[in-house]
Amino acid sequence: MIKVLFICHGNICRSTMAQYVLQDMVNNQGIADRFYIDSAATSYEEIGNGVHPGTRNKLKSEGIQCGNHRARHMEKSDYNEFDYIIGMDSANIRNIGRIVGNDRDGKVYKLLHFAGEERDIADPWYTGNFDATYDDVLKGCTALLNEILDTEKFTKEN
């Protein structure tokens, strides 16, 4: 099973959007049983809160089912539980490092890294632009899934 953890500051906008976008992709490809996808926050500000209405509305407009995820804090133990730990921006990556320590297994990436870009995904909490965030999340998740499907580990599990 491939385990993916998406990370953002509060776990109510970008990371949950990525969680549900990737889940929709694997559902549509009939490979959902080979994945465990979750999301978490690097801060404690939104813990227990549900998905932001802007994220929920954007996913609905794209025909993507949004579940009842509640914001949770990333824990040090998550490093050992997940194969990919994906931050949305440079601050997330720094904060992931503070939580888990050294990325000894090379699991931590920014989402757009998989699309050949190292830029941040803007936080719609501040920008209000859920469309732009969705476009970047979709681009990153598409590239991430392609990368995973090309890995030897995934192929061997067929």
UniProtKB/TrEMBL annotation:
**Top-level division of the source organism's lineage:** Bacteria
SUPFAM superfamilies cross-referenced by the UniProt entry: Phosphotyrosine protein phosphatases I
Which organism does this sequence originate in? Eubacterium ventriosum
In its UniProt record, a GO molecular function of this protein is: protein tyrosine phosphatase activity
Keywords, A to Z, come to:
Hydrolase, Protein phosphatase
* The protein's Enzyme Commission number: 3.1.3.48
All residue ranges annotated as the Phosphotyrosine protein phosphatase I domain in the record: 2-147
Q: Which residues are annotated as active site?
A: 8 (nucleophile), 14, 123 (proton donor)
Q: Tell whether Kinase is among the UniProt keywords.
A: no
Identify this protein by name: protein-tyrosine-phosphatase
Q: Which InterPro entries match?
A: LMW_PTPase, Ptyr_pPase, Ptyr_pPase_sf, Tyr_phospatase_low_mol_wt
